[in-house]
User: Fold these one by one.
Assistant:
Number 1:
Amino acid sequence: MKNLRLTDIASELNLSVTTVSKALKNYPDVSNKTKKRVKEYAQKMNFKPNSFAAYLRTQESKIIGVVIPRLNHFFFSDIIKGIIKAAEKESYMVIVLSSEESYELECKQVNRLIQHNVDGILLSIADSTHDVSHLSQLIEQKIPLVMFDKYSKLTTCSTVVINDQDAAFRAVEHLIKKGRRNIAHFRGPLLPQNSIDRFLGFRRALDEYGLKYRKEWVFTCDEISSEEGYRYTEEILKSHPEIDAIFAVADMPAVGAIKCLNTHNIPIPERIAVMGFSNWKISELITPSLSTIDQPGSLMGQKAFEIFYEELQNKKKNIPIKHQQITLNTDLIERESTN
Amino acid sequence: MKNLRLTDIASELNLSVTTVSKALKNYPDVSNKTKKRVKEYAQKMNFKPNSFAAYLRTQESKIIGVVIPRLNHFFFSDIIKGIIKAAEKESYMVIVLSSEESYELECKQVNRLIQHNVDGILLSIADSTHDVSHLSQLIEQKIPLVMFDKYSKLTTCSTVVINDQDAAFRAVEHLIKKGRRNIAHFRGPLLPQNSIDRFLGFRRALDEYGLKYRKEWVFTCDEISSEEGYRYTEEILKSHPEIDAIFAVADMPAVGAIKCLNTHNIPIPERIAVMGFSNWKISELITPSLSTIDQPGSLMGQKAFEIFYEELQNKKKNIPIKHQQITLNTDLIERESTN
DNA sequence: CTGAAAGCGCTTACAG
DNA sequence: CTGAAAGCGCTTACAG
């Protein structure tokens, strides 16, 4: 049982391939009667045009590529889910590739996708990406590019992000309102915009509430791992006993902090409150449960696809493309670790 | 900058398209000198043949489809990672689709992949799949199918699995050796083979160690969620105070159990020991950390791809396909929840 | 309103 | 050893 071809339908219905093709695509110069016949038969036989053959003519592959920094990462899985669902609605297939947070691999994956003639690329940049010429190249080739979550300000393309600075501000403000005055920050790596923005939100909250910024209370998590969170928390217990709250750039280091505090029998939040960022599943399951910022991953993926699709339609109609910068809302989730 | 075509290389080197194509594919009837010229130029220009055009002749799309029951699920992400890495080595692209544990959606996704001319399908069946004709159809169409993790005994295809019964046996044996005598089991849904096998492993351990099986100590987690684990643990505390250990079909219900015991200040493992299954990241991060069975997700994905690739090569050479049943090893991870 | 024909970029059987 | 030509399954400009 091979997939049905236009030729098969044509000979079955005693029509030409041309007419069948046009009927299926609703060309105005085909009689309604013929259209009806063809469509009904195609429907019955579950005919789908061979996308590879179609591509050769239309240069549209009906495939998009997605490049994310990590595959086995809850937040990105959520985004992928949103992308795949949105893509399904427009009969798009999704090829997923990972940069493993490596700049070189990111370049390579982008090139692989170009070679495979994807209609567009949705991408979240790797932490180590310092140069964006592989992305500018996409813009030049007029391949729609949408960046999500982790983006670069240097690339002129549409983006779907959250307001990291604002969300971080609210997270720290929450700690301050709970009476905390000596707040440490586990920040992310130096390069990515969102770890910078979360750090800036942290600083702005200190400023606005008249708390002094101490750079020795800022710890850099290059891996954004629970191990780093654990280690820095031990350091805090040893060398900075005055610290009464931790705001982490992500849930993983926050979970590491909680693990460390539990191990040392330090009461949370009485002695040290902990605030995460992302609202991974784990944050509600650990004891005590972790207060955090909820990021709408699936929605982010969905929006990213929708923008790509809009840009593609405009490109086909030769409408000049206006890049969009979409900022999604985040929610502060209060749980036991700060209450 | 469009992708380079054979025509471009041919005109650049004053050769025919035919010769260029043959040179690149190492046909014996092209002179070494020409081959060298062509290959060097192609290398320099980073030429990759357009896979869509190639497909039309060879019927090979260089794309495989993967269908998993859930996208944002740590274990499956791990498998996907293994698949993508292995696929990359053979220049294969991976299209990922989700069945969301729904039989209908699984059928639909398999059909979408066939329509898109994938060279093969790697699949883990949905919990609700009760009929496998959509899979038998693949075999009939000679589209290689490899099932991983969750498989059906009714489909004649290669599989990559773990020995669930044996792993479950060892998990329960571990609890028994720690002195537990009244062991509850949070089992998975009734249909999937691996929840059946884990249940059978549980029973066999009881039998071999002379413990009585009590069906009122078996609780079914249809969603395999932490919420179910939490709820059943409350029920145990209320109605079955003699229970001194829980063996859960997966980490999530086990984590729910720990959450519940923590909330009620029940000491773990002194009063109740808890054993999970899968070794998700979360299991080492909660307090107390969770003893569990480590499943090699990434390796499972890798093997699944490799088997598909082998079958495809054999199919091309018209070698009859021998299906392989691969069983990967699991490890028992002892952590605080049983020690 | 319908259809013959060209062409997308490859591969490969065939001719020279 | 090299190349002209056919053909994979579509789409679409063109002819009638």
Number 2:
Amino acid sequence: MPKHSLRVATWNINSLRLRLGLLNDLVAALDPDVICLQETKVPDELFPHDGPPALGYPHVVYRGMKGYNGVAILSRLPLKHIDIAPDWCGKGDCRHVAVEVETKSGPVELHDFYVPAGGDVPDREQNVKYGHKLDFIAEARAWFAARTGLDRTILVGDLNIAPLEHDVWSHKQLLGVVSHTPPETEGLNAWMKTGFVDAIRHFVPDTEKVYTWWSYRNRDWKVANRGRRLDHVWVTPDLKPALHKHTILTEARDWTKGSDHVPVCVELRL
DNA sequence: ATGGTGGATGTTCCA
């Protein structure tokens, strides 16, 4: 049985309507079979239906709202919407969509998440957004922990947490900064350990810096290089032997009117 | 030590 490649990309696009054209550049660079987007910022009734098919992605599942959040999955392969997850934290805020991807070697379950950013103050008493972020992670962890026997599953997205020392430009300076605080990194690790491995760190040793996001609030992101790895690809352990390569499309941070996040892509041979 | 930029929205929110 010959193996088939499956390339899955994830990108926080920070407005789908504003950056629809940049998806051409993403496809040219990564040639993905499936594209998972976060922060689409478009209500479902205004979703740009013509865009994805024109790009070569006729299969689309999305969940959006006015102004904020929003996720979408664009695919060359047929998709089935899996609508079994809860309304996380009961907020109805469009931070997750899941599908079954019909690959040549059978179905693969795919989850696309946009975890709350969590505000500025890392204290749930002073900052409800931080509490929401921790609650969201705990709820997701419990939900996946209850799904015993999960396999052939990929989880991607902007998880808004840089879990490892070398996922940030300065571990010491960011320990008190939302995205790298111990309650967040411990929570994210516990979620991952419900049944996933970190696909990017499968390719890149923990001792090497990896970033996927650089703040807009720097005149020259490349010179300062104060990045964080907020965007992730996890796979269930049965898919570990299928992990073939990864790409962090760092050059995308220089695209005209680009996102503050860059696309991340993983190729599997299934 | 603080503000820096960007998107959607509507004169402010969220990141």
Number 3:
Amino acid sequence: MPELPEVETTRRGIKPFLLNRKILKVVVREPRLRWPVPDALAEELRGQLVTAIDRRGKYLLLRTRKGTVLIHLGMSGSLRLAVVGEALKKHDHVDFILASGRCLRYHDPRRFGSILWVTGDPNLHPLLAELGPEPLGVEFSPDYLLARCRGRSVPIKSLIMDSHVVVGVGNIYANEALFAAGIHPERVADRLTAEHCEALVREIKQVLDRALTVGGTTLRDFVHGDGKPGYFAQSLKVYGRGGQPCLQCMTPLRETRLGQRSTVFCPRCQT
DNA sequence: AGTGCGGCCTGTCCGC
DNA sequence: TGCGGACAGGCCGCAC
């Protein structure tokens, strides 16, 4: 499940192979993603030079002079660099064939991801225009979070997972950051103090930053192997540990559901 | 406007 | 061993 560190690791991994390279053609074997892959994609991209590879939240942006390819990996998507002619795996839905003989291959078993074609400023696209700040940027500050918590009755975990508040905080890292900050996931957002917000912002940044560092060590996998970034290698303190002892106080971790998401916390350490 | 929930999907795991 | 069903989850879009 690609979280923000994995998307950024993917961006860095594919960038050297795409930047200033020409796209010979695009092959769409399965257009039925979250939204249909637009017919225009293949014809518009043919012969285009990739001028930049950016990221906004969990969206990757492949920029060309004519427009931008917006790629979201959803739950199970991945991008990998294949050699043209390399055997297809099941769920290899789209190929971006480069003049270099490489091929950027989109793979997505559950098809929750998306590939869209956007002309004009992609930041004005409805999917991007309303997104909150990047979690690792200066704009995501304790003051900002406190302001966004004001008047909100949702659980704090739901709030930090809302991409309109801050992008890139998925379920795993929301659980981990709340544990590290000592905040109960069901605490009403409006009831967070400045101190809570300071701890929470710090821990969100730290957990993402750590994962990014770990992911960065496996870049070569994007070219050769199965493209599995190493962010899971970091030890998760609560996620997936429901019923097991809290690593700080040995109290059994509690597992509940919050907004249809598996939620794990220590009933003693998190208040 | 804010809130909560349904739905999209398939691989994996569990119990029978 | 085979089968059905529950579960996992990002995030849009809808209903209230």
Number 4:
Amino acid sequence: MSDDDLVFKALADPTRRHLLDRLFVRDGRTLTELESELTMTRFGVMKHLRVLEEAGLVVTRKSGREKLHFLNPVPIRLLHDRWIDKYTERHVSALVDLKKELEETS
Amino acid sequence: MSDDDLVFKALADPTRRHLLDRLFVRDGRTLTELESELTMTRFGVMKHLRVLEEAGLVVTRKSGREKLHFLNPVPIRLLHDRWIDKYTERHVSALVDLKKELEETS
DNA sequence: TTGACATGTGACTAGAAGGTCACATATTGT
DNA sequence: ACAATATGTGACCTTCTAGTCACATGTCAA
């Protein structure tokens, strides 16, 4: 399986995206901590974290019996650059920012 | 199915990403034109285009008996902003650009 | 050292997704 | 009109994936 395929497949699952959301708020979390926020069993969460790690979206560091998980934004940026060039980026990001502002004030 | 789920599911398939790549180079293509570049049958391509359209990654316009397909970068940018804030974006994009430059000169 | 804690592995099952086909509708040009 | 072209629908099968469980290894603290 190719590198980018791993990334996209990893992002395809809502549970895995939720895990990235949690790590986006604060990373360095353990499996047990991440599991406690979900209804799923520990094994399910472990499988998901493994998929994220193999995709490079999450990097880990072992600390004793714990395994700490960190978010890696690089694959996300590469994904972005695949279909949004530097020129288009200005327009799109401006448009998106405007849309967000309008939604906030409403 | 939620909006972002549709987007991520749509991006999960390599054929659909290839279709986006083709539309990134030049959009306004018809189903038949896109099919001619793939080994798959027309029905497979049609299914994929439908998934992309429902996700909002592709917008269409009918012109007589033809249906023209256009790339919409907005969902990609929203995906990006979910895990890369404005501050992190500077570091990550600089890092990615540097990496690309190094790969080009090698 | 021994019990509690944190993580890891392989097998299994139910459901989702990719791809094809027979069949159908709508539009164009001669 | 009519034949060729372009797109659309529903059923079907096969393959992939999410989730669980029994079982196992490694680490900490008293």
